[in-house]
């Protein structure tokens, strides 16, 4: 059986030397439920990455962001699907977001990322971006 392939985008949003990290809801497979990630979501058919990222953050956080340059991309195979995760450098004019689809959020420096239990795809992306 062929695994489902997901094209996912995420926002790397910084405030000075800290980056926004969000914790997933308690739903989905154990290997991603309640794990930490950079906010974002799936790219729908007919959308480009920028449109998808702006839509996802508006839907999940009621937050308008500016999507900047592509930072990097990885592919990761989970037991049930394969994900292509692409990160974009993003900015927001304020920190006035709501956690509509996440349990928690925090702002951390890259050296503090190890404190969190990241999804495997986000962990691989972190290794690529902060070598």
TrEMBL record:
Gene3D superfamilies: Nucleoside Triphosphate Pyrophosphohydrolase (3.90.79.10). GO terms for biological process: DNA repair; DNA replication. Keywords: DNA damage, DNA repair, DNA replication, Hydrolase, Magnesium, Metal-binding, Mutator protein. It catalyses: 8-oxo-GTP + H2O = 8-oxo-GMP + diphosphate + H(+); 8-oxo-dGTP + H2O = 8-oxo-dGMP + diphosphate + H(+). It comes from the Bacteria. The keyword Glycoprotein does not apply. It is an enzyme of class 3 (hydrolase). Its EC number is 3.6.1.55. GO terms for molecular function: 8-oxo-7,8-dihydrodeoxyguanosine triphosphate pyrophosphatase activity; 8-oxo-7,8-dihydroguanosine triphosphate pyrophosphatase activity; 8-oxo-dGDP phosphatase activity; 8-oxo-GDP phosphatase activity; metal ion binding. Its cofactor is Mg(2+). PROSITE patterns: NUDIX (PS51462). InterPro entries: MutT-like (IPR047127), NUDIX_hydrolase-like_dom_sf (IPR015797), NUDIX_hydrolase_dom (IPR000086). Belongs to the Nudix hydrolase family. This is 8-oxo-dGTP diphosphatase.
């Amino acid at each position: 059986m062929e695994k489902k392939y997901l094209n996912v985008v995420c926002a790397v949003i910084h405030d000075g030397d800290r980056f926004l990290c969000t914790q997933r809801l308690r739903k989905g497979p154990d290997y991603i439920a309640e794990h930490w990630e950079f906010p974002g979501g799936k790219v729908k058919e007919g959308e480009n990455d920028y449109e998808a990222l702006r839509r996802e953050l508006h839907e999940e956080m009621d937050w308008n962001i500016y999507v900047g340059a592509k930072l990097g991309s990885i592919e990761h195979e989970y037991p049930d699907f394969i994900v292509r995760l692409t990160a974009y450098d993003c900015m927001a004019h304020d920190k006035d977001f709501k956690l509509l689809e996440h349990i928690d959020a925090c702002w951390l420096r890259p050296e503090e990322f190890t404190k969190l239990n990241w999804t495997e795809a986000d962990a691989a992306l972190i290794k690529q971006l902060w070598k």
